[in-house]
Amino acid sequence: MNNYIQENKDRFIDELLQLLRIPSVSADPKFKGDVRQAAEFIAEKLREAGADKVELCETAGNPIVYGEKIIDPALPTVLAYGHYDVQPADPYELWHSPPFEPVIKDEKIYARGACDDKGQVYMHIKAFEMMMRQNELACNVKFMIEGEEEIGSNNLGIFVNQNKEKLQADVIVISDTGIIANDIPSITTGLRGMSYVEVEVTGPSRDLHSGLYGGAVANPINILCQMIAALHDENNHITIPGFYDNVEELSSEERAEMAKAPFSLEEYKKALDLGDVHGEAGYTTNERNSIRPTLDVNGIWGGYIGEGAKTVIASKAFAKISMRLVPNQTSEEITEKFTRHFESLAPPSVKVEVRPHHGGEPVVTPTNSVAYQAASRAFEQTFGKKPIPVRSGGSIPIVAMFKAELGIDSVLMGFGLDSDAIHSPNEHYGVFNFLKGIETIPYFFKYLAEMSK
Amino acid sequence: MNNYIQENKDRFIDELLQLLRIPSVSADPKFKGDVRQAAEFIAEKLREAGADKVELCETAGNPIVYGEKIIDPALPTVLAYGHYDVQPADPYELWHSPPFEPVIKDEKIYARGACDDKGQVYMHIKAFEMMMRQNELACNVKFMIEGEEEIGSNNLGIFVNQNKEKLQADVIVISDTGIIANDIPSITTGLRGMSYVEVEVTGPSRDLHSGLYGGAVANPINILCQMIAALHDENNHITIPGFYDNVEELSSEERAEMAKAPFSLEEYKKALDLGDVHGEAGYTTNERNSIRPTLDVNGIWGGYIGEGAKTVIASKAFAKISMRLVPNQTSEEITEKFTRHFESLAPPSVKVEVRPHHGGEPVVTPTNSVAYQAASRAFEQTFGKKPIPVRSGGSIPIVAMFKAELGIDSVLMGFGLDSDAIHSPNEHYGVFNFLKGIETIPYFFKYLAEMSK
């Protein structure tokens, strides 16, 4: 760790905690004001660090924070992307400390957004501050920090489309992924896409007494369960017709290469208290959550869910369902195939509605680019080991969108860990990881400038 | 309608509305005080009507209101049973007027409990008042009005067991069922029993990000759906081993007799806005909801159920499941068979817990008894038509319990309609039905006394 980080780390962390105290949940309209406050905080910190032209770019939804520092048009330009919005924090009762009152315990910062993505965004701002103060900024830099990543980045797409000139850059750098372990650095080179839908099954037009009507009318909850169950076969293959049509199948060489990444099935099961893993027949755990498409119910509800018993047949039942997609599948294609199939599963005794939420495209980033090589050298410099390229199961839909709209590849320099519990109660981010990110980013700028000469 | 009812009907209705304003929801602890207030209201009205020994009999849960009027030990004694607790009123947003602010519209009283069972209980209290004021009480009468019917009547069972002497009677009369239509009187002669369980499926020990873990771990919601789906086969038979072992199969003569009850499938579908009915192959709608056992999910929940999208794999998923039982099945047997089967459906990747809520036994009441004949004559007197004996799909578990503990048969003199939306939003009770009950009950007392001589 260099002197600047050593001398300023308490302040860096303190500032991050301030940001984490703002409950910028984009999915829930009641946090609208907090979302804006988080944007303003980011903007202020960019200004303080020395960025020019800092502004909140208004959209139909939450603002996008922009800022830049152009030092020499001849140098490469890095566009740093991140998001200041966070996932909803419920179920609140499972948090050991309140999600928006960050605490540091065992060298980890606990709060919603600690890792995803406020902690990782803030590394970029502090790395930029350090480069500015030490007069070591080696590339031009542009910041674009949005507030709707957790709800689909719809307005970012419009913004990018309308600001192609302003956003021109040589590479986009994103810290919203992770490394294998603190002593096993890695860089994400592939991301899954996503289709996210909400389904509604309607049986009788009103809630009914299950004694008087039970057995004689379609119970929408039972039917919804049957329809969801029918989406997988006994091998856990997804049954939607055409679902796998465009799936990229990896060669046995590629799979053998993947299998070399350090992984212990026993530790994986133990960490999650699993009796067994569960997934598509014919694939390993690491393949199931990275190179294979999936279908998961993210939420389900219907009928009486309070305390005690109520003998009701609900009129309606609901589920939120997401599918993770792999290269060559598209969210539009899959959402359409899902909708057609799900509707076909409904018996005539119920009505079904499928509402698409948002989608994103899968992506594979090049590992032979100058930018990837610069990132790899930066990790090797600070971790003392060459990072392993890995495919992640997560989705960052904007990576494919950036490529399509701007023609720019991204480098996914994330510093989180799988165990950080992002999207879960007790999300956290290691102080080690936060500071390591601040240390690594300037090397990326340095090597990118050198290698681009 | 006689003069007494004519002169007092506005007051009768006004008093019922007062009772309906008390949100005595037994399933939810936050209404504990209201439940007690409803008991006190009932006790006060019994006292005002002329009952002796009125008291709130304390139990481990909600009190049982007792009162009696013994006029002559030589006369038959009627034990009138009912309940002052009500079902939860949610979903509140589907009510056209607030569930605990009763309104009268189109000659119907709209409120939670209007029919089930406050409106029907209150008919007995006002019929008793009328008989007392007019010096026409023809039998001894005991009242036992409980506050836990909607949550399984556990404490009533204990109370009855401990008060066999006090509760001795010749017949128990219960108004918690219905008639076919206002111009087609009927008396319920059979009730289904019930097993009610709550199930919990646990996958990973914490909520997970569906991108990083999706496809590799068991999603408890998907698994719960698969397990629930597996409880019925393609003919909508229940797949629990041994589930039908003891089911009483009706003869074709009995089924032909049942089929004579007036019923229009088209009207049934229209009333509930159903594309089609849905149920066990080989049985009619009226058979499915009365003489056949069923399995319905009454509530399901898990994962993110707020607005927008959250890409989470929940740690746990839950469902409330009830089974309606027919004669010769017992709730203990079925709960055990369900539990064993449900646990066997779980793959090793999840943990399952089945928690029994409450049960009740199915019952068939005799139609050749003096009490049934007296009730039949009373209905004929006030409706101008002999009532049809019908099997109901609902459950009043205490009927079997009364028979077992006290050796007393019940007569199910209910005046509700299937369309009253009990257990649903916009529950209501016809003013016609309320007053018709008050008119009919004294004839039952009269004929019972005459026929018992």
TrEMBL record, chains A, B:
Pfam family, one: Peptidase_M20
Listed GO biological process terms: proteolysis
Domain Peptidase M20 dimerisation, chain residue ranges per copy: 190-348
Record key words, sorted: Hydrolase, Metal-binding, Protease
Top-level taxon: Bacteria
UniProt-recorded Gene Ontology molecular function terms: metal ion binding; peptidase activity
InterPro entries reported in the protein's UniProt record: Bact_exopeptidase_dim_dom, Cyt/Met_Dipeptidase, Peptidase_M20, Peptidase_M20_dimer
NCBIfam families registered for this protein in UniProt: PRK07907.1 (NF005914), PRK08201.1 (NF006053), PRK09104.1 (NF006579)
UniProt name for this protein: Dipeptidase
